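Supplementary Methods. Inverse-folding protocol.

Structures were first reduced to a discrete structure-token string of length 429. This string, shown here, constituted the complete conditioning input.
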């Protein structure tokens, strides 16, 4: 039996769930994990008022926990970056292992943390930082350790997925779906980090560091939000056999890694297209095994607490033997070098030859057209009179070629307004 003495900083929703799980599931942890977990101290800025266990040592001085000589593992659950970083650095310098659920911290300061951890020969667990209770990090560092990862594609933000699911299933506008998400507690009062793609981008950078052995660097992620998706796009996608999901994507070509997070058309014959509401899922494609999919709750106190406890058990058993993060020759950039098909929606002049001229742009650039939809025009305003909506699915092209194609079409006299473009993820990508 392994004895693990734990100190926790943060007693909010997640921290409270972790404390409860440790206090009330000790027998289960011993039975299933072979680990006896003893909670030594809790750091909570609001003190004992938020920790309903009289037998626990509670302090408002968070640094006291990081310096406690009786603590073997320091668990950081306060969120934010600067204070969290100082606490973790202090704990590591004191020879303590660390477990964190802080994706923003790892995305911005992960390299510093891991370099210090390697120097001090301690472990850092962060399963809860991506996809909540879905063990995708464990899959990358253990289950797929014998396989070279070629790409991953994941729904990593439950809020965005819920909104897109509501828009598609209930035929509601973006603002209505967002309000419902907020009412259910699935979105913050300020949902910016979720809907603009920042949250998914940070998580994508963490997955990429593990999958491709590159440094943590969220600045290398190209991303956009779901506020560019409207009901018209969802309807066209459905007609063509796709759903629209916010997909975090990472791929390796040679020694070049591309990382992104954008609204993406996902073919109905993929498992990702079936992931609804606030759930998360990650598809990983690796040499020798092909595609594997990991599905589960991506947020919430209980799923996140479950992932934190799993890391504690791993630390106790010494199974987090360090990391290969940042140790490869691979380099990351925001440009997606992988060829992917594209969805383009535009308003074309309702006149003879307009569609033929638009199609010629594809031919001149040696780009195939996989599908084309032209519906009868139903103008909503005077500005839309004389134009028809057109949707074209291109053959596989890179990001640079896709952007050049979009601009070329947008500059045509036969096209009015802007051209909307999304990537397409299919079963064979």
């Amino acid at each position: 039996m392994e004895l693990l003495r734990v100190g926790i900083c943060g007693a909010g929703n997640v921290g409270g769930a972790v404390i409860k799980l440790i206090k009330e599931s000790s027998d289960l942890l011993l039975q299933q994990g072979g680990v006896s977990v003893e909670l030594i101290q809790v750091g909570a800025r609001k003190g004992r008022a938020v920790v309903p266990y009289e037998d626990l040592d509670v302090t408002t001085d968070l640094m006291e926990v990081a310096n406690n000589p009786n603590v073997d593992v320091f668990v950081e659950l306060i969120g934010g970056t600067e204070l969290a970083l100082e606490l973790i650095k202090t704990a590591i310098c004191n020879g303590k292992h660390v477990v964190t659920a802080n994706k923003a911290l790892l995305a911005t300061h992960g390299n510093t943390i891991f370099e210090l951890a390697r120097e001090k020969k301690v472990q850092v667990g962060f399963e809860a930082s991506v996809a909540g209770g879905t063990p995708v990090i464990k899959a990358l560092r253990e289950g797929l350790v014998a396989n070279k990862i070629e790409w991953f594609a994941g729904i990593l933000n439950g809020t965005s997925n819920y909104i897109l699911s509501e828009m598609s299933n209930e035929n509601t506008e973006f603002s209505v779906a967002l309000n419902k998400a907020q009412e259910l507690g699935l979105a913050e009062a300020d949902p910016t980090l979720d809907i603009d793609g920042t949250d998914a981008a940070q998580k994508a950078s963490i997955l990429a560091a593990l999958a491709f052995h590159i440094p943590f660097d969220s600045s290398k992620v190209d991303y956009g939000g779901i506020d560019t998706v409207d009901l018209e796009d969802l309807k066209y996608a459905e007609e063509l056999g796709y759903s629209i999901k916010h997909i975090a994507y990472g791929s390796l070509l040679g020694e070049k890694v591309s990382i992104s997070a954008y609204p993406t058309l996902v073919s109905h014959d993929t498992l990702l297209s079936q992931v609804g509401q606030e759930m998360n899922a990650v598809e990983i494609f690796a040499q020798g095994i092909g595609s594997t999919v990991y599905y589960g709750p991506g947020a919430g106190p209980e799923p996140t607490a479950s992932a934190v406890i799993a890391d504690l058990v791993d630390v106790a058993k010494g199974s987090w033997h360090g990391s290969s993060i940042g140790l490869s020759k691979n380099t990351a950039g925001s440009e997606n070098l992988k060829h992917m098909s594209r969805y383009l929606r535009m308003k074309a002049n309702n006149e003879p030859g307009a569609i033929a001229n638009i199609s010629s742009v594809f031919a001149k650039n040696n780009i195939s057209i996989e599908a084309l939809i032209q519906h009868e025009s139903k103008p909503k305003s005077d500005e839309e009179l004389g134009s028809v909506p057109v949707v074209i699915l291109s053959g596989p092209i890179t990001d640079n070629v896709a952007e050049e194609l979009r601009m070329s079409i947008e500059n045509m006299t036969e096209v009015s307004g802007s051209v909307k473009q999304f990537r397409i993820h299919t079963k064979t990508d």
